[in-house]
Amino acid sequence: MNPNLSQLQAYPFERLRQLFASITPNPTFRPISLGIGEPRHATADLIKKAYCDAIMDPQGGLSIYPATTGLLSLRRSIGNWLERRYGLQLDVETQVLPINGSREALFAFVQTVVNPSQHAHDKQPAVVVCPNPFYQIYEGAAFLSGAQPYYVPSDPARNFAQDWDSVPQAVWARTQLLFVCSPGNPTGAVMPLSEWEKLFALSDRYGFVIASDECYSEIYFREDPPLGGLEAAARLGRAGFKNLVSFTSLSKRSNVPGMRSGFVAGDAALIKQFLLYRTYHGSAMSTVVQAASIAAWDDEQHVRDNREQYRAKFAQVTPLLTQVMDVALPDAGFYLWAKVDGSDTDFARDLFTLYNVTVLPGSFLARDAQGFNPGASRIRMALVAETAECVEAAQRIVEFVQSRK
Ligand SMILES: Cc1ncc(COP(=O)(O)O)c(C=O)c1O
Description:
The chain is of the alpha/beta class. The protein has helices spanning 12-20, 45-56, 72-86, 102-113, 137-145, 169-174, 193-206, 229-235, 250-253, 268-281, 287-298, 301-322, 344-355, 387-404, and strands at residues 32-33, 96-99, 127-132, 148-155, 161-162, 175-181, 209-213, 244-249, 262-266, 335-339, 357-358, 360-361, 378-382. It is globular and about 60 Å long.
């Protein structure tokens, strides 16, 4: 067996299942889960219709093998979207590839980029730099590529920005890949241009690749849409996006997590190698999904409607919770990342026991590194259910926190 498999950690939801295993929640309350970050708004009809039409297409549908590059029409739709959204003009022949949701691609990209034997001469492993807290795929992908993750804590005093300055030079020297997650999961923080500038300078100096995970980019609460990684590079005059790729997904933007569709875009040299890897890995997107994806990328109205639903929900829920805990409206995303008194696991367990509300303990989303766990004493609440349910959950949480005092 691949020995790196033994380094994989239990997924946060598995740890939550174990935490709750022996509990019978209070039966007077119906269960409400803010635990899993899975979109629950309805999928727009125009996407479902394009999907059904494509299945029935006698020339295509399910009867042909798709190409890993995807249809040119899909890459053009994505190119047009990148232009509308970020003012970017990419060569869709060489700088864009469809992916089956960002999760598989984030994982596969690490396998494409990392050279685990590069630092063998001094018996040091290659490094993949991750934010902390973070999306657990980054860590698993690093381990399975033969690299070691290095966790960079987010700082609550600076809108949860990563403390990139704390990374020792010796670590940067072994870094082959760095993950940015902006808007962040779980913090919702959007990385500003000044930090991109810092990371580009480090990437130029040490030669590492930046993978920018942007799957929450279309759900935001500020006036300006979140800055994208490629957009930041273009603003800083980095034509060609050297050593940079971004991952964008339809899952959250268009409420189609079950469709598995997104794209990767950026440095053509990296995309070329990634395409080679994907051809062998077998990651071509069904033409049916491609047709539905074209419909989704070409339409913004359903995205605006979706964003408005989140805005209305957060406007109702956040003020309730701020009465009893340190929590604020994030820049973007669909999570509240709140501070609680005492242990986050005790909080989640007691809330579930007494009020039948599920939240995710923050420490499950982060690692102990540099002497502390930046998720400790925090909880993540995913406001994905409909507004009335989220408001009811918030009211129960308020009661619960007041009863603990
Ligand atoms: C930060 C982050 N990146 C990537 C993903 C993967 O999303 P998908 O594979 O649906 O595009 C998720 C899903 O929750 C996420 O939270």
